[in-house]
Amino acid sequence: MGNDIKWQKSGFSGGGGEQCLKTTESNGQILFRESGNPELTITTSREKLAAFILGVKAGEFDHVN
Fold it and tell me: Which of 6, 33, 50, 60 is most deeply buried (CB count within 10 A of its CB)?
């Protein structure tokens, strides 16, 4: 990923920035990376992300530790 990408983190992330999940949009895709491992990027579509968020809100992943 180029350095020109502007990553955004949640205001609920750790204050020092070391416990962050950051996101951005590039070429119609949603990208995620962890501050502790910025070389690894997860890419998904808006539709897949929306389905995942609905599942989280519905409690479908509450059993995941």
Answer: 33
